[in-house]
Design a protein that fits this description.
- With 344 residues, the protein is α/β, with parallel strands linked by helices.
- It folds into two domains: 201 residues, Alpha-Beta Complex (Quinone Oxidoreductase, Chain A, domain 1); 137 residues, NAD(P)-binding Rossmann-like Domain (Rossmann fold), CATH 3.40.50.
- Strands 3, 5, 6, 9, 10, 17 and 18 form a seven-stranded mixed beta sheet that branches.
- Strand 1 and strand 2 form a beta hairpin.
- Bound molecules: zinc ion (ZN).
Protein backbone atom coordinates (compact mmCIF):
# COMPACT_ATOMS: atom_id res chain seq x y z
CA UNK A 1 0.00 0.00 0.00
CA UNK A 2 1.03 3.62 -0.42
CA UNK A 3 2.00 5.59 2.67
CA UNK A 4 3.66 8.91 3.47
CA UNK A 5 7.12 8.70 5.03
CA UNK A 6 9.20 11.65 6.23
CA UNK A 7 12.96 11.19 6.16
CA UNK A 8 14.00 14.64 7.34
CA UNK A 9 13.20 18.33 7.05
CA UNK A 10 11.61 19.02 3.68
CA UNK A 11 11.93 15.35 2.65
CA UNK A 12 8.49 13.73 2.48
CA UNK A 13 7.92 10.80 0.15
CA UNK A 14 4.97 8.63 -0.83
CA UNK A 15 6.19 5.04 -0.93
CA UNK A 16 5.00 1.46 -1.13
CA UNK A 17 5.11 -0.13 2.32
CA UNK A 18 3.88 -3.50 3.67
CA UNK A 19 0.07 -3.58 3.93
CA UNK A 20 -1.47 -2.66 7.28
CA UNK A 21 -3.08 -5.70 8.93
CA UNK A 22 -4.83 -6.79 12.12
CA UNK A 23 -2.26 -7.62 14.81
CA UNK A 24 -4.22 -7.55 18.10
CA UNK A 25 -7.69 -8.81 18.96
CA UNK A 26 -8.75 -5.22 19.68
CA UNK A 27 -7.61 -3.83 16.29
CA UNK A 28 -9.58 -2.70 13.29
CA UNK A 29 -8.15 -2.42 9.80
CA UNK A 30 -9.33 0.74 8.07
CA UNK A 31 -9.25 1.51 4.38
CA UNK A 32 -8.81 5.27 4.43
CA UNK A 33 -11.14 7.44 2.35
CA UNK A 34 -10.12 10.89 3.68
CA UNK A 35 -7.03 12.10 5.52
CA UNK A 36 -5.18 15.38 5.77
CA UNK A 37 -1.97 17.21 6.58
CA UNK A 38 -1.79 18.83 10.02
CA UNK A 39 -0.06 22.00 11.14
CA UNK A 40 1.78 19.83 13.66
CA UNK A 41 3.22 17.80 10.75
CA UNK A 42 5.02 20.99 9.75
CA UNK A 43 7.24 20.93 12.85
CA UNK A 44 9.18 17.86 11.67
CA UNK A 45 8.91 19.16 8.10
CA UNK A 46 10.84 22.23 9.26
CA UNK A 47 13.21 20.64 11.77
CA UNK A 48 13.51 16.85 11.58
CA UNK A 49 17.05 15.50 11.34
CA UNK A 50 17.61 12.94 8.59
CA UNK A 51 16.54 9.45 9.58
CA UNK A 52 17.16 6.51 7.21
CA UNK A 53 14.20 4.59 8.62
CA UNK A 54 11.83 7.53 8.14
CA UNK A 55 8.71 8.39 10.07
CA UNK A 56 5.20 7.33 9.10
CA UNK A 57 3.07 10.48 8.83
CA UNK A 58 -0.56 11.44 9.35
CA UNK A 59 -3.02 11.15 12.23
CA UNK A 60 -6.38 12.39 10.93
CA UNK A 61 -8.66 9.99 9.11
CA UNK A 62 -12.04 8.81 7.97
CA UNK A 63 -12.28 5.37 6.43
CA UNK A 64 -14.17 2.13 5.96
CA UNK A 65 -13.70 -0.80 8.31
CA UNK A 66 -12.21 -3.67 6.30
CA UNK A 67 -11.69 -6.16 9.13
CA UNK A 68 -11.84 -6.31 12.92
CA UNK A 69 -10.03 -8.35 15.57
CA UNK A 70 -11.81 -11.07 17.55
CA UNK A 71 -12.61 -8.83 20.54
CA UNK A 72 -14.04 -5.84 18.63
CA UNK A 73 -17.77 -5.34 19.25
CA UNK A 74 -18.77 -1.77 18.41
CA UNK A 75 -17.65 -1.48 14.79
CA UNK A 76 -18.00 -3.95 11.94
CA UNK A 77 -16.82 -4.47 8.41
CA UNK A 78 -18.29 -1.85 6.09
CA UNK A 79 -18.82 0.87 8.72
CA UNK A 80 -17.66 4.38 7.82
CA UNK A 81 -15.73 5.66 10.82
CA UNK A 82 -13.78 8.68 12.03
CA UNK A 83 -10.74 8.21 14.26
CA UNK A 84 -9.26 10.80 16.61
CA UNK A 85 -5.51 11.39 16.33
CA UNK A 86 -4.94 9.37 19.50
CA UNK A 87 -6.31 5.88 20.01
CA UNK A 88 -7.76 4.94 23.39
CA UNK A 89 -9.65 2.09 25.04
CA UNK A 90 -12.50 4.27 26.31
CA UNK A 91 -12.64 2.34 29.58
CA UNK A 92 -9.58 3.17 31.71
CA UNK A 93 -9.53 5.73 34.51
CA UNK A 94 -8.25 8.56 32.30
CA UNK A 95 -10.68 7.82 29.46
CA UNK A 96 -13.54 7.87 31.96
CA UNK A 97 -12.26 11.26 33.14
CA UNK A 98 -12.27 12.51 29.55
CA UNK A 99 -8.49 12.62 29.07
CA UNK A 100 -8.34 10.03 26.31
CA UNK A 101 -4.91 11.23 25.17
CA UNK A 102 -3.54 9.83 28.45
CA UNK A 103 -5.27 6.44 28.05
CA UNK A 104 -3.24 3.72 29.77
CA UNK A 105 -3.64 1.55 26.64
CA UNK A 106 -3.51 4.47 24.24
CA UNK A 107 -1.08 6.04 21.82
CA UNK A 108 -0.77 8.16 18.72
CA UNK A 109 -0.92 7.31 15.03
CA UNK A 110 2.44 7.51 13.30
CA UNK A 111 4.38 6.80 16.51
CA UNK A 112 5.86 3.76 18.26
CA UNK A 113 5.27 1.37 15.39
CA UNK A 114 1.65 2.41 14.73
CA UNK A 115 1.26 3.46 11.10
CA UNK A 116 0.36 6.97 10.01
CA UNK A 117 -2.91 7.99 8.38
CA UNK A 118 -1.54 9.66 5.24
CA UNK A 119 -1.75 6.17 3.77
CA UNK A 120 -4.17 3.93 1.93
CA UNK A 121 -4.88 1.91 5.07
CA UNK A 122 -4.09 1.90 8.76
CA UNK A 123 -4.31 -0.45 11.74
CA UNK A 124 -6.38 1.15 14.50
CA UNK A 125 -5.60 -0.24 17.97
CA UNK A 126 -8.34 -0.22 20.63
CA UNK A 127 -10.97 0.00 17.88
CA UNK A 128 -14.00 -0.10 20.21
CA UNK A 129 -12.80 2.88 22.22
CA UNK A 130 -11.29 4.82 19.35
CA UNK A 131 -13.64 4.70 16.38
CA UNK A 132 -16.93 6.53 15.94
CA UNK A 133 -19.33 5.30 13.25
CA UNK A 134 -20.58 8.07 10.97
CA UNK A 135 -24.24 8.06 9.91
CA UNK A 136 -23.52 9.20 6.34
CA UNK A 137 -22.01 7.80 3.14
CA UNK A 138 -18.39 8.35 2.19
CA UNK A 139 -19.30 10.78 -0.60
CA UNK A 140 -21.43 12.98 1.66
CA UNK A 141 -20.81 16.70 1.23
CA UNK A 142 -20.19 16.97 4.98
CA UNK A 143 -17.05 14.84 4.72
CA UNK A 144 -14.54 17.73 5.10
CA UNK A 145 -16.25 18.94 8.28
CA UNK A 146 -16.53 15.39 9.65
CA UNK A 147 -12.81 14.91 9.03
CA UNK A 148 -12.03 17.88 11.30
CA UNK A 149 -13.50 15.88 14.21
CA UNK A 150 -10.33 13.81 13.95
CA UNK A 151 -8.22 16.68 15.19
CA UNK A 152 -8.53 20.39 14.37
CA UNK A 153 -12.16 21.01 15.39
CA UNK A 154 -11.73 18.97 18.57
CA UNK A 155 -8.42 20.71 19.23
CA UNK A 156 -9.88 24.19 18.72
CA UNK A 157 -12.72 23.18 21.04
CA UNK A 158 -10.22 21.94 23.63
CA UNK A 159 -8.38 25.27 23.48
CA UNK A 160 -11.67 27.08 24.07
CA UNK A 161 -12.75 24.76 26.89
CA UNK A 162 -9.31 24.94 28.54
CA UNK A 163 -9.41 28.74 28.28
CA UNK A 164 -12.90 28.69 29.86
CA UNK A 165 -14.53 30.46 26.92
CA UNK A 166 -18.25 30.85 27.43
CA UNK A 167 -21.22 33.23 27.53
CA UNK A 168 -20.25 36.84 28.12
CA UNK A 169 -16.54 36.12 27.84
CA UNK A 170 -13.95 37.96 25.77
CA UNK A 171 -11.70 35.64 23.80
CA UNK A 172 -8.47 36.04 21.84
CA UNK A 173 -7.22 33.43 19.38
CA UNK A 174 -3.47 33.33 18.78
CA UNK A 175 -2.75 31.52 15.51
CA UNK A 176 -4.66 31.71 12.22
CA UNK A 177 -4.06 28.11 11.10
CA UNK A 178 -6.79 25.50 10.92
CA UNK A 179 -6.81 24.98 14.70
CA UNK A 180 -7.05 28.71 15.43
CA UNK A 181 -9.88 29.03 12.92
CA UNK A 182 -11.69 26.08 14.52
CA UNK A 183 -11.02 27.76 17.86
CA UNK A 184 -13.06 30.72 16.63
CA UNK A 185 -15.92 28.35 15.75
CA UNK A 186 -15.63 26.72 19.18
CA UNK A 187 -15.54 30.01 21.10
CA UNK A 188 -18.63 31.23 19.27
CA UNK A 189 -20.37 27.90 19.75
CA UNK A 190 -19.70 28.15 23.51
CA UNK A 191 -21.29 31.61 23.57
CA UNK A 192 -18.32 33.99 23.76
CA UNK A 193 -19.28 37.63 23.38
CA UNK A 194 -16.16 39.04 21.76
CA UNK A 195 -13.72 36.95 19.71
CA UNK A 196 -10.47 38.61 18.67
CA UNK A 197 -8.52 36.77 15.96
CA UNK A 198 -4.85 37.59 15.94
CA UNK A 199 -3.62 37.03 12.39
CA UNK A 200 -2.54 38.68 9.19
CA UNK A 201 -3.24 36.48 6.19
CA UNK A 202 -6.24 37.99 4.28
CA UNK A 203 -7.88 34.66 3.37
CA UNK A 204 -7.62 33.40 6.93
CA UNK A 205 -8.95 36.66 8.38
CA UNK A 206 -11.92 36.51 6.03
CA UNK A 207 -12.69 32.95 7.11
CA UNK A 208 -12.24 33.84 10.80
CA UNK A 209 -14.84 36.61 10.39
CA UNK A 210 -17.27 34.20 8.76
CA UNK A 211 -16.67 31.75 11.61
CA UNK A 212 -17.54 34.41 14.19
CA UNK A 213 -14.50 36.58 14.92
CA UNK A 214 -15.70 40.03 15.98
CA UNK A 215 -12.31 41.78 15.80
CA UNK A 216 -9.05 41.23 13.95
CA UNK A 217 -5.63 42.19 15.29
CA UNK A 218 -2.95 42.06 12.63
CA UNK A 219 -0.13 43.76 14.54
CA UNK A 220 2.74 41.73 15.99
CA UNK A 221 4.27 41.33 19.44
CA UNK A 222 3.90 44.36 21.75
CA UNK A 223 1.77 46.28 19.27
CA UNK A 224 -0.62 43.35 19.11
CA UNK A 225 -0.87 43.28 22.91
CA UNK A 226 -1.60 47.04 22.93
CA UNK A 227 -4.30 46.61 20.31
CA UNK A 228 -6.04 43.82 22.26
CA UNK A 229 -5.98 46.04 25.35
CA UNK A 230 -7.60 48.86 23.37
CA UNK A 231 -10.33 46.47 22.25
CA UNK A 232 -11.01 45.34 25.83
CA UNK A 233 -11.12 48.67 27.68
CA UNK A 234 -7.53 48.16 28.83
CA UNK A 235 -8.38 44.93 30.65
CA UNK A 236 -7.21 42.10 28.42
CA UNK A 237 -9.36 39.08 27.56
CA UNK A 238 -10.83 36.37 29.76
CA UNK A 239 -9.86 33.47 27.53
CA UNK A 240 -6.88 33.04 25.22
CA UNK A 241 -6.58 30.16 22.76
CA UNK A 242 -2.86 29.55 22.09
CA UNK A 243 -2.85 27.59 18.83
CA UNK A 244 0.79 27.91 17.72
CA UNK A 245 3.27 26.74 20.35
CA UNK A 246 6.16 29.14 19.70
CA UNK A 247 7.73 31.26 22.43
CA UNK A 248 6.52 34.50 20.80
CA UNK A 249 2.94 33.28 20.47
CA UNK A 250 2.91 32.01 24.05
CA UNK A 251 4.25 35.34 25.24
CA UNK A 252 1.53 37.16 23.28
CA UNK A 253 -1.11 34.82 24.72
CA UNK A 254 -0.03 35.41 28.30
CA UNK A 255 0.33 39.15 27.74
CA UNK A 256 -3.23 39.67 26.50
CA UNK A 257 -4.86 37.62 29.29
CA UNK A 258 -6.65 39.68 31.92
CA UNK A 259 -6.14 39.03 35.64
CA UNK A 260 -7.98 35.87 36.58
CA UNK A 261 -8.18 34.79 32.96
CA UNK A 262 -7.12 31.53 31.33
CA UNK A 263 -4.89 30.43 28.50
CA UNK A 264 -5.79 27.20 26.69
CA UNK A 265 -2.66 25.85 25.04
CA UNK A 266 -3.04 23.44 22.13
CA UNK A 267 -0.02 24.42 20.03
CA UNK A 268 2.75 21.88 20.69
CA UNK A 269 5.33 23.85 22.74
CA UNK A 270 8.56 24.30 20.83
CA UNK A 271 10.51 25.48 23.87
CA UNK A 272 11.10 23.88 27.24
CA UNK A 273 9.79 26.71 29.38
CA UNK A 274 6.83 29.06 29.53
CA UNK A 275 7.71 32.79 29.36
CA UNK A 276 6.49 35.55 31.71
CA UNK A 277 6.26 33.41 34.84
CA UNK A 278 5.97 36.43 37.16
CA UNK A 279 3.28 38.51 35.40
CA UNK A 280 1.07 35.46 34.89
CA UNK A 281 1.62 34.53 38.55
CA UNK A 282 0.72 37.96 39.89
CA UNK A 283 -2.30 38.10 37.58
CA UNK A 284 -3.61 34.73 38.72
CA UNK A 285 -3.64 33.49 35.13
CA UNK A 286 -4.62 29.86 34.64
CA UNK A 287 -2.40 28.08 32.14
CA UNK A 288 -4.21 24.99 30.88
CA UNK A 289 -4.49 22.80 27.82
CA UNK A 290 -2.48 20.07 26.15
CA UNK A 291 -3.06 17.47 23.43
CA UNK A 292 -6.80 17.59 22.89
CA UNK A 293 -8.74 14.51 23.98
CA UNK A 294 -10.75 14.85 20.78
CA UNK A 295 -12.36 11.43 21.29
CA UNK A 296 -14.14 12.96 24.29
CA UNK A 297 -15.63 15.70 22.12
CA UNK A 298 -16.78 13.84 18.98
CA UNK A 299 -20.27 12.95 20.22
CA UNK A 300 -20.78 16.52 21.46
CA UNK A 301 -19.72 18.26 18.24
CA UNK A 302 -20.94 15.71 15.67
CA UNK A 303 -24.63 16.80 15.77
CA UNK A 304 -23.65 20.41 15.01
CA UNK A 305 -21.69 19.24 11.97
CA UNK A 306 -24.52 16.97 10.77
CA UNK A 307 -27.03 19.82 11.16
CA UNK A 308 -24.72 22.26 9.38
CA UNK A 309 -24.68 24.62 12.37
CA UNK A 310 -20.90 24.73 12.12
CA UNK A 311 -18.76 24.19 9.00
CA UNK A 312 -15.20 23.55 10.17
CA UNK A 313 -14.47 21.72 6.91
CA UNK A 314 -14.09 25.13 5.28
CA UNK A 315 -10.51 25.19 6.62
CA UNK A 316 -9.63 22.77 3.80
CA UNK A 317 -8.64 24.94 0.85
CA UNK A 318 -6.87 22.27 -1.17
CA UNK A 319 -7.57 18.64 -2.03
CA UNK A 320 -5.03 16.15 -3.36
CA UNK A 321 -4.58 12.46 -4.11
CA UNK A 322 -1.92 10.68 -2.07
CA UNK A 323 0.76 11.26 -4.71
CA UNK A 324 0.34 15.01 -4.19
CA UNK A 325 1.03 14.86 -0.45
CA UNK A 326 4.67 16.08 -0.65
CA UNK A 327 3.50 19.19 -2.53
CA UNK A 328 0.74 19.59 0.05
CA UNK A 329 3.37 19.82 2.79
CA UNK A 330 5.24 22.42 0.75
CA UNK A 331 2.07 24.45 0.19
CA UNK A 332 1.11 24.44 3.87
CA UNK A 333 4.66 25.20 4.97
CA UNK A 334 4.76 28.20 2.63
CA UNK A 335 1.31 29.24 3.91
CA UNK A 336 -0.05 28.91 0.39
CA UNK A 337 -2.71 26.53 1.77
CA UNK A 338 -4.42 26.55 5.17
CA UNK A 339 -5.03 22.80 5.27
CA UNK A 340 -4.77 20.10 2.64
CA UNK A 341 -7.23 17.20 2.43
CA UNK A 342 -6.18 13.87 0.93
CA UNK A 343 -8.91 11.92 -0.89
CA UNK A 344 -8.40 8.28 -1.77
ZN1 LIG B 1 -8.21 4.60 28.34
Amino acid sequence: MKATIMYGAGDVRVENVPDARIQERTDALISITHACICGSDLWPYKKMEHDDAGRSMGHELIGVVEAVGADVRKVKRGDLVVAPFAFSDGTCVFCREGIHTSCVHGGFFGMNGIGGAQAEAVRVPQADGTLVVLPVGKDDKLMPSLLTLSDVMGTGHHAAVSAKAGPGKTVAVVGDGAVGLCGVIAARRLGAEQIIMMGRHPDRIALAKEFGATDIVSERAEEAVERVRELTHGLGVHSVLECVGLEESTLTALSVTRPGGSVGRVGVPQRGSIPEAQPSFYNNVTIAGGPAPVRAYIEEILPDVLEGTIEPGRVFDRVTKIDGVPDGYRAMNEREAIKVMIKF
